[in-house]
């Protein structure tokens, strides 16, 4: 499950910030929180910042440059990440004066009392296939913002852009993950686990959310830093998604249940952003009741038998290959009962037979 529209990405929800360099952070301050506000029942900005301070967050990431929030963050020890919204990228990219105005209004008006440390240009722009013109505006916009920052002799604010899971050439299985481009330092802009969801969203529960985030925090705050298999010992700034459950997000239930806190400010489960509290001191978690597979239409009807280990269509082992077989097999078996080749727009009809070797795909004659 994962944070894009497909469930498998929702659970991991990892976005990467390119062009960022972080070298001045202590392990405890490496953990930040995404402060989203897509809810009609959330605490005020003042209350939210007080909660972040109480939770001992080291950083906070905003999805804009909200004036009220930036004023309230003045005098705190929170390192702040602000964002140029997608709809403002083109103007900032096309005109240095527009970039200067953006920096004047959203940075200079608050800095240095508000510890702005990162300016993110857009949010997952390269994953938006509907407006590819913005793809070519990202780097010019970043350059213009950087130039404006430099002209004011500011050297402790980094410029970046968040990228989604498709920055990975390969993402499954996770141990085979590989970046399409390798030369940029990265930080984790969003990662987390949903504490609830719809009945068919397997694994979205409080137990898994607490387990994931607690283990994540221990790893990120470990001293000396653990890093990754490719970069052992590297300190990785990380922002947990998100501060609250937000009731105005998305269609899927998981989209509204990523919070560390309920909208009333109470913790959904015990969490320690410093990584210092032992697991034994946390309250006992409720056992999950949805970690098993959803018994839906594809359950035990024979349509997936040939993609089981050792069967004729098990190879190649990939989500796409197995999904191709499962969709074709299901439609061939149940088309006579009125089923369609749709699968929530994940499937399309094709005249190309994907059969290979001893693997024969079921098909429908139209």
TrEMBL record:
GO MF annotations, alphabetized: hydrolase activity, hydrolyzing O-glycosyl compounds
Superkingdom, natural source: Eukaryota
Pfam families, per database record: Glyco_hydro_17, X8
InterPro entries in the cross-refs: GH (IPR017853), Glyco_hydro_17 (IPR000490), Glyco_hydro_17_plant (IPR044965), X8 (IPR012946)
GO terms (BP aspect): carbohydrate metabolic process
Domain X8: 290-361
Keyword Acyltransferase applies: no
Signal peptide positions on this chain: 1-25
SMART domains per UniProt: X8
Keywords associated with the record: Disulfide bond, Glycosidase, Hydrolase, Signal
Family: Belongs to the glycosyl hydrolase 17 family.
Protein name: X8 domain-containing protein
Record organism: Anisodus tanguticus
């Amino acid at each position: 499950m994962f944070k894009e529209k497909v469930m498998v990405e929702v659970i991991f929800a990892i976005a990467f910030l390119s062009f960022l360099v972080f070298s001045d952070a202590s392990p405890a301050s490496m953990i930040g929180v995404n402060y989203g506000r897509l809810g009609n029942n959330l605490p005020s900005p003042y209350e939210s910042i007080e909660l972040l301070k109480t939770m001992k967050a080291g950083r906070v990431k905003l999805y804009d440059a909200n004036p009220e929030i930036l004023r309230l963050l003045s005098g705190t020890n929170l390192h702040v990440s602000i964002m140029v919204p997608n709809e403002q990228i083109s103007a900032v990219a096309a005109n240095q004066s527009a970039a200067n105005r953006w920096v004047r209004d959203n940075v200079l008006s608050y800095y240095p009392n508000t510890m702005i440390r990162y300016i993110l240009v857009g949010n997952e722009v390269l994953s938006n296939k509907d407006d590819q013109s913005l793809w070519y505006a990202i780097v010019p916009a970043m350059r213009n913002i950087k130039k404006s920052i430099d002209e004011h002799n500011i050297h402790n604010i980094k410029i970046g852009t968040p990228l989604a899971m498709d920055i990975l050439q390969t993402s499954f299985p996770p141990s085979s993950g590989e970046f399409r481009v390798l030369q940029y330092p990265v930080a984790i802009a969003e990662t987390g686990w949903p504490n609830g969801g719809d009945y068919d969203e397997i694994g979205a529960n409080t137990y898994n959310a607490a387990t994931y985030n607690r283990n994540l925090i221990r790893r990120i705050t470990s001293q000396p830093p653990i890093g990754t298999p490719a970069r052992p010992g590297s300190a990785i700034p990380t922002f947990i998604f998100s501060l609250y459950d937000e009731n105005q997000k998305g269609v899927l239930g998981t989209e509204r249940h990523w919070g560390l806190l309920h909208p009333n400010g109470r913790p959904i489960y015990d969490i320690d952003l410093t990584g210092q509290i032992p697991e034994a001191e946390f309250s006992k978690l409720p056992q999950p009741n949805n970690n098993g597979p959803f018994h839906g239409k594809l359950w035990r009807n024979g349509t997936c038998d040939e993609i089981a280990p050792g069967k004729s269509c098990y190879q190649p082992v990939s989500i796409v290959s197995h999904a191709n077989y499962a969709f074709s097999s299901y439609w061939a078996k149940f088309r006579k009962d009125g089923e369609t080749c749709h699968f929530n727009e994940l499937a399309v009809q094709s005249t190309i037979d994907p059969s290979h070797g001893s693997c024969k795909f079921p098909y429908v004659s139209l």
